[in-house]
């Protein structure tokens, strides 16, 4: 099971320079506009509310665009990711923006040991993070272990229904191709490319991923001592999750099914507090 970390880290390490250079991450827009926020954070600003002065940590932060966006909203942020190149890129980026954000390299399951337990007001996790973890129960215990009593988890993630779907070259045809619930064995992928625009050809393309059903996520959080305080499903995601079947809404910057978007819960926002 430990091999998944080695394989996944190699894939993410290799993609960091391409992601940082891609126009999709808009790093120069952050530099040019001190009020600019990542699309993921901007989508949820009404749900986040006032986070000024909160001590926050962004788990699985990658190159830190969501992390610095939360810092721009007034939170005192830390970021954690298992990829050393990602952390180095994120720290350099935050320093360039003049933001006091500290980044740490560690596996997410080691976050309490690395960052210190029960010291945060806010744990944030963004799109495309928890699917890289084999146990949602361990993740929930990590979240609870980081939060002060009354501290809040805020997660927006791809919907497990979306992750279970497989697109087809035939217009309008989408099938259930992958597990909805957490499985002991991972889904093994061997795919080049990445989710942003780039011409780079990658060498490390084998990855392991897991899906986690909504009830599994919520039950794991409640068992870990968390209380669910808000839950909302959305018909959109910030990337073309089903190529050929989705259309970009230029106003929101999010992708929806081209036909009958009301049929698919594509993402969700979940909030919980530590009891």
TrEMBL record:
A UniProt-annotated Pfam family: Methyltransf_12
Organism: Kribbella orskensis
GO biological process: methylation
Domain of life: Bacteria
Keywords assigned by UniProt, alphabetized: Methyltransferase, Transferase
GO molecular function, one term: methyltransferase activity
Identification of the protein by name: Methyltransferase family protein
Methyltransferase type domain mapped to chain residues: 58-153
CDD domains: AdoMet_MTases (cd02440)
Matches recorded under InterPro entries: Methyltransf_12 (IPR013217), SAM-dependent_MTases_sf (IPR029063)
């Amino acid at each position: 099971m430990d091999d998944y970390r080695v394989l996944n880290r190699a894939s993410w390490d290799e993609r960091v320079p391409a992601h940082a250079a891609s126009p999709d991450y808009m790093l120069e827009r952050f530099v040019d506009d001190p009020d600019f926020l990542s699309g993921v954070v901007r989508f949820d600003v009404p749900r986040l509310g006032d986070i000024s002065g909160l001590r926050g940590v962004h788990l699985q932060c990658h190159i830190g665009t969501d992390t610095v966006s939360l810092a721009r909203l007034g939170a005192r942020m830390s970021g954690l990711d298992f990829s050393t190149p990602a952390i180095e890129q994120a720290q350099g980026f935050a320093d360039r923006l003049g933001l006091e954000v500290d980044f740490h390299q560690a596996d997410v399951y080691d976050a309490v040991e690395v960052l210190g337990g029960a010291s945060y007001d806010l744990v944030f996790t963004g799109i495309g993070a928890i699917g890289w973890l084999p146990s949602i129960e361990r993740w929930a215990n990590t979240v609870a272990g980081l939060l002060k009593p009354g501290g809040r988890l805020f997660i927006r993630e791809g919907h497990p229904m979306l992750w279970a779907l497989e697109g087809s070259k035939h217009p309008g045809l989408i099938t259930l191709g992958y597990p909805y619930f957490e499985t002991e064995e991972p889904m093994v992928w061997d795919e080049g490319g990445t989710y942003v625009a780039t011409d780079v050809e990658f060498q490390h393309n084998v990855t392991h991923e897991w899906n986690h059903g909504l009830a599994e996520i919520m039950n794991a959080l409640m068992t870990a001592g968390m209380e669910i305080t808000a839950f909302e499903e959305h018909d959109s995601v910030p990337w073309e999750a089903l190529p050929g079947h989705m259309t970009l809404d230029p106003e929101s910057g999010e992708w929806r099914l081209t036909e009958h978007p009301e049929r698919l819960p594509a993402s969700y926002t979940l909030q919980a507090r530590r009891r």
